[in-house]
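Lab notebook, bench 4. The sequencing result for the construct came back, and we need a structural model before the next group meeting so we can plan mutations. Quick request posted to the team channel:

Model the 3D structure of this chain.
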Amino acid sequence: MDDFALAAFREREARQILRRRAFYLHLAVYVAVQVALVGIWALVGGGFPWFLFALIGWGIGLVTHGAAAFLLAHPDDIVLEREQRRMRESDTG
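Done. Here's the predicted structure in C-alpha cell form:
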C-alpha cells in the first residue's frame, strides 16, 4: 500500500472520529437542555408539559444526527473502502 492510500485511510478514520465526537457533544447539550427545561417546568408548578415539544422536536434531529454519524457513509468513504478491499485482494491473490 502506498503512502497516498495510507494517508487517505487515516483521513477517513479521522473524519469518522470527528463526526462521532460531534454527535456526542450534541447528545450532551441535548440532555443538559432537556433536564433544564423539565426543571423549569417543575419549578413553575407543572401544568401542561410544554417541554415535550422541545424534547420530541430536538430528539428527532438528534436521532438523524446519530444515524448520519454512525450509519451513513460519506461517498468518499465508500470509494476508499472499495479501494482498500481491492488492494487487499490483490495482495492475497
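The first helix runs from residue 3 to 43.
Will bring this to the meeting.
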